[in-house]
Amino acid sequence: MLAQHKKNIRVIKELIRLRFQKIMLFRLSFFGPFFVDGSLFAVQLLVFRAVYANVDRIGSWGRGEMILYIGSFSLLNAVSMVICFFGLNSIPYKIKNGDMDLYLTKPVSPLLRFTFEQVNPGSIPLILMSLCIIAYGAATAEHSIKTAQIAAYIFWLAVMEILYFEMEVIIRALTFFFVTDARLSQLEEAGIDLCMKLPGIAFYGIYKVIFYGLLPYGIMATLPVQSLVGEMSLPLACFGLLVLAVFTALTAVLWKTGIRHYNSASS
Question: What is the pLDDT of residues 236-251, one digit of tens each?
Fold first, then answer.
């Protein structure tokens, strides 16, 4: 097991090295995304400002908590954009055109390669900007934040980043079973767009069932913020870990089943 982990680490390092070599062949490809992603992030902030300009509270959250939420969700999205989004996003195309064959013949996990082979350093400014928003939200929040709460916040961010990754894999792995994933991608985009603007504490009834259980985008930034401002209860923490466990198992089963179900486009 330890030898396998060491091998995976070496593979990840090599994938990232090759990716940077490829990007640096064309300098505009390296520096261009800094400007593009930074501009898009600025537009998002203007949208958030317009949405929350006349809103003082959502449930028990004031403006500071809402700013923390926006920064937290942006951070989750930015980390995904830097590390794995573009690699995972290529899965449906690899399945449809038969390029998946090349991944299955390599002595390394196909999912590991998809995750790290297209890292995107151009999205690093989004991480830095998200951290600035989080810092501003923490300073604005009506709660005194202690070291233990910061540690809990970092823990839940890590947990929710894993869940974010698993949702990306699940959506794209369904291409193994369906001809197209267009509708699923639209569903993902709609869910992220809604939950990036509206915290989970605002959902009730069927909406809470959907965005806390079926498409758990509603908890991804909500739980970290609740842990930071002292609203995290033991049942809520157990629920968050249970959701992660369920989706981890679902991701593993769906991916392995999809690989077995896969028929080469060239066969």
Answer: 999 999 999 999 999 9
How many domains is the chain partitioned into structurally?
1
In a domain, 56, yes or no: yes
* Residue 192: closest CA among 213, 169, 164: 164
Look up residue 180 and give its two tokens.
């197209």
Residue 267 in domain: no
Whether residue 86 is contained in a domain is answered as yes
Q: Decide if 266 is inside a domain.
A: no
Which of 24-38, 92-106, 220-234, 250-264 is least confident? 24-38
Digit-coded pLDDT (tens) for 75-111: 999 899 899 998 998 898 888 888 888 888 887 889 9
**Cα 167 from Cα 217, distance rounded (Å):** 9
Structural domain boundaries enclosing 178: 2-261
